[in-house]
Amino acid sequence: MDIAFFIELGLDIASAALMLTGAVFLMAGALGMLRLPDFYTRMHAAGVTDTLGAELIIIGLMLQSGWSLVTVKLALLGLFIFLTSPTATHATANAAYKSGLKPLLQRFRPRSPDDNGGAS
What we know:
This protein has one domain (3-97). Helix content is 75%, strand content 0%. The chain has three helices and no strands. Helix 1 packs antiparallel against helix 2 (39-65) and helix 2 (39-65) runs antiparallel to helix 3. The longest helix has 33 residues, at 3-35. The chain is elongated.
């Protein structure tokens, strides 16, 4: 076995680890979309994990493709996602707020001392 074999093996392991980590982040974002209570927290889960998960997968694919035109195209795609995904998330949340959708804040307010937990 020569050094080229170990370099290829290292690249394959790093690529698989990055793509698997990106998939885990995307699954966490999907779970957040289902479990979080209101629109704004769901937007946060979708925006952050979508950007990070997609970037990790793209970096893993760049390692897999080697030095080629595909790598350049993937790098440009990663740059495009890195710039547009947070901007789109912010624009959507801002439009929702300006249209009158208020954040759900009652769930997180501390109880007052005279509150008996809803019992009559």
